[in-house]
Each structure stands twice: as C-alpha cells, then as structure tokens.
Write a structure and sequence with these properties.
402 residues; alpha/beta; Nucleotidyltransferase, domain 5; 2 domains; five-stranded mixed beta sheet; globular; binds adenosine-5'-diphosphate
Length: 402
C-alpha cells in the first residue's frame, strides 16, 4: 500500500473473537493484512496477523478478559502500525439492523438507534456497539460504517417475514429477519461476475459454516432464508439447534425446571451437531468418527438431510432452480458433505460431477445437470470493504478479485 492509497479497515466482532482486515483502495481492493484476536475471555488469548499472501506475520499472546480489553489492545496495536496512517474509514459487521436496508455511516443518531434495538439481539449488538464506540473514542474523526447482516433479506416478501404469532408482536418488530446477509451479498456479486445470466434465474445460496443458513434468491433479491428472528432458527448448526418444536419450551420448563436463559443457552450453545453427537461441534471430527460412533453418524446424516430438505423447499418457493451455491467452511471444503446433501436431488436437475466436486472446483455440477452447482469462497470482510468504499466514494472501481 503506498502512502497515497487510502485504506479501509474492517472489523468483525464474534462471541469470543475480533477479526479485522486492512484493504488498500486503488482501482482494486487489495487485502494488505488480516488478523484476529481469539479466545477472548479464555486462557491463551492471541493476536494473530497474516499478510496478503496469508503468511503469518505476527502472533502475540495477550491477556484480555473481555471485549473491552481486547479492543483496547487492538487499537494500540493498530496505532503502532505504519499502515494505520492510510486508513480512511472503518467498516463494521453489525449482525442486526432491524429495518436498515443499506450500509450506513455511523452517527450519534445511528448509535442511539443501535442501543435502542439491542433487546432484539442481546448476544451480538452490545459487543458490536462497544467496538464502534471504542474506535469513536480513540479516533473521533475517522468515518465508520455499519454493514448490517440482516440488510440483504429486507427484500423478503411479507409472507416470508411473518411469524405466525399474535399480530401485536409483529407491531413490536417480532418477525423473520434472516442473517448471513453480508455473505449472501458477496456471493451474489461473485455469481454475477462468474455467470452474469445467473441472476435472471432462481438461485439457492447454502452458507454452511459453524452457523449455517440457506437463502432463496430470485432475480438477485432474497425471497426467503432459513434463519429467522434470531440466528438460532433454520438448519441444524454446529451448536445451534435450528428449528425445533416450540412446545419444547413448556415441556422442559415443567419437567426440568428449565428457565428461559437456560433454554437460550441450550439451543444456542449445546445443541446442533454438538448436542446430537455428544462429542464435537466440528463436522470434520464427526466425519472422521462416523464409522465407529453411531451418534456422530446420526449428526452428520441429520445435517445433510436437513440441508437437502431446505433445498427442496426453496426450489418449491422459487418455482424451480437454476443455480445452487455452496459456501463457508463446510460448503467450500467438504466434497463428502456436498455429495451427501445433493444425493437424490436429481429430480430437481442437480447432478454433481465426481471429479470437480472432489477438487472443490468453482463449478461442480455435471454437464448433464440442469442446475449449475458452484462453490464460491465467501468473503464478508471484502464485502464490508466494498460497501465502505462505495458509501464514502473512496475511489474503488469495482474490479477487484478476492
Ligand atoms: P464460522 O461460522 O465460524 O465462520 P466457518 O465458515 O469457518 O465457520 O466454518 C467452520 C466449520 O467448517 C467448522 O466447524 C468445520 O466443521 C467445517 N469444515 C471446515 N472444513 C471442513 C471439511 N474439510 N470438512 C467438513 N467440515 C469442514
């Protein structure tokens, strides 16, 4: 990055980590470095930084009992980097944005609004607001942009947004929002680049990572998505249950004296692949053990079965299917899981090519299949950087490749 080139910093705060990346904005967006502080609040907290080729540049052990301490450390570290002088703006992933449909410049008013909507996402928003405020305090003149993970799904029709509970709750914002929107927006931009015609058709995006969701896209717009009012809904995930019978709340309250916070803890952190297998939330571990451990085998089968059902259901919602995109940790890296999800979907026109699938090729469908099946490496950080440069008009011409 030359001194003349502006830089954009992206910040993505997770439950026990803060990821960041620095992009130089020329005609292209070039990732200069990426890093994360992980295991916040646990022993062995680390700051790990890698350069543009992905090579580790620095690892530092730190003590950070909470996000506040971690962000203070990150700000000190960033301030000490010569590259920091080039940063013209910071883009934040904000998981919940209620009705916000576009990335927005952070103002006092927006911050007030984010504080107001915190009850809708008490797991993520307080931490994310804390990160924005920490940057604001240290660098009050540095423009910041909030990029909402819900925005992509604001195009969903009312029928997909409605939750079938009494109307009085809908008036208070109780509806389906959907998440993974930054990933979806990125996948759609990449799909347009790879196959400009694809967006005229019917697309399903399968973002399969620790958090997993499927999204039905018609003419480039989300028409339905599997996560809902919270990210715990939809497909079974690493530790989240996905959709479960609402009657379970009362049953467990009666028989186990389970409280609402305990239920929340259970469905978010103790369920999903971890809960069913009783051994691991990581699909790699489960695949390695399924030959000898029946519960691991059932967890893997449940994941593939549910993903297949969501694909079938969204093909119905879309009135057919032209493109299926696999993304995120599982979607990008596991030929076995993709194969098992797509098994028996020949009736929809989904046929995988064994060799292309085995090497995680960009296009993994067989030429005989009607549906194009793709693997696209998603990049939420790059999507944030793109959004910031567009909003603040920093001079990106839109030509970058991931
Ligand atoms: P996050 O939602 O935390 O960003 P990722 O998109 O990084 O998650 O995905 C992480 C998950 O991807 C891990 O839990 C792991 O189960 C899965 N994964 C990564 N590589 C493979 C693989 N080769 N086979 C199966 N699962 C994989």
């Amino acid at each position: 990055m030359s001194a003349a080139e502006p830089g954009v910093l992206t910040i993505n705060g997770g439950s026990s980590s803060i990821r960041f990346a620095l992009f130089a904005v020329g005609g292209t967006l070039q990732r200069q470095l990426a890093g994360k502080i992980d295991r916040i609040g646990l022993k062995g907290t680390n700051l790990v930084v890698s350069d543009q080729s992905g090579k580790a540049r620095a690892t530092q052990h730190i003590t950070a009992a909470d996000h506040g301490t971690a962000v203070g450390f990150l700000l000190d570290w960033l301030d000490a980097q010569p590259l920091f002088a080039s940063i013209k703006a910071v883009g934040h992933r904000v998981v919940h944005g209620m009705q916000h449909t576009e990335p927005e410049r952070v103002t006092r008013r927006l911050l007030k609004e984010l504080h107001r909507i915190t009850p809708y996402d008490p797991d993520h928003l307080p931490r994310e607001i804390g990160l924005i405020e920490a940057f604001l305090q240290r660098h009050p003149k540095l423009p910041q942009v909030a990029c909402f993970d819900t925005s992509f799904h604001r195009s969903m029709p009312a029928v997909a947004r409605l939750l079938p509970v009494p109307r009085r709750y809908a008036a208070k914002g109780v509806e389906r929002y959907g998440f993974h929107g930054l990933s979806c927006a990125y996948l759609i931009e990449e799909l347009t680049r790879l196959d400009p015609g694809a967006l005229n058709g019917r697309v399903i995006l399968a973002h399969l990572g620790s958090g997993a969701s499927l999204t039905a896209v018609y003419r480039g717009k989300s028409i339905d998505t599997s996560m809902g009012f919270t990210p715990a809904a939809g497909l079974v995930m690493s530790t989240r249950s996905g959709d479960i019978d609402p009657g379970l709340v009362y049953y467990l309250a009666r028989t186990e004296n389970m409280t609402a916070p305990q239920f929340q803890q259970m469905v978010n952190h103790e369920s999903g692949l971890l809960g069913v297998s009783g051994m691991s939330s990581d699909l790699r571990d489960l695949c390695a053990s399924e030959a000898t451990d029946v519960r691991a085998a059932e967890a893997v089968e449940l994941f593939c079965y549910q993903a297949r059902k969501w694909i079938g259901s969204y093909a119905a919602a879309l009135g057919g299917l032209d493109t299926l995109v696999f993304a995120a940790g599982i979607g990008e890296n596991s030929p076995l899981i993709r194969k098992r999800i797509c098994r028996d979907l020949g009736f929809l026109g989904i046929e995988l090519d064994r060799k292309r699938n085995a090497r995680n090729a960009d296009l993994i469908s067989a030429d005989v299949g009607r549906v194009k099946v793709r693997v696209i490496r998603t990049d939420e950080e790059l999507m944030i950087a793109r959004s910031v440069t567009r909003l603040l008009d920093l001079g990106w011409t839109g030509n970058d490749k991931p």
